[in-house]
Amino acid sequence: MSAFFVAVAIFLVAIILMPFYRVLRGPTLFDRLLAIGAIGGKIIALILIAGLLFNRLDMFVDLALAYAALNFIGGIAMAEYFRYIGSRASPRK
Amino acid sequence: MSSEWIQHGIGGGLMVIGLAFMFFGSLGILRLPDFFARTHAASKVDTVGIAVVLAGIAVIEGLTLNSAKIAIAIMFLTLTNPVAAHALARAALRHGLKPWQRRARPNREE
Question: Which of A1, B11, B37, B88 is an S-S bond match for B32, by CB 3.0 to 4.6 Å?
């Protein structure tokens, strides 16, 4: 069973590495914020699979809940900031 | 065929389906032409993929305290991930970002 979890974890790492290209190359600012939010969501699944591999799931579930809350609050805060403060700069940078 | 095989089989199947959804979500973030189109991929497909993977892990665990906490995490993610994506898209629209239009080809006469 743990070999299946190792395969799932490796595939999940490959899936997490894909939006990094959009973080580096996204032509607007909002592309980068969107890719970071997507990466944060997938890391929650990776934390839980790491908990299954280490056989200590009760610790990693609390970590996953805290990271989900952090990801959401960070996304909302960045969206509100860039709506008000960043209105002088153009979105092309 | 004990009940543990069935439980592990259903949980593993749910995790594979969720991984497929997350793969297509990531592929959409890479390949779609505009920010607003990428919001579709990143919010809808990604939320479903993560919820299904977490449900698969909860099925493998059985009826314990951990799977109750994972159910709370699923509810939280299903509620908040679309809200965050909507806030980002609305901020981009207020910022003045225009959606992508397919340019008209001037030399097509039909």
Answer: B37
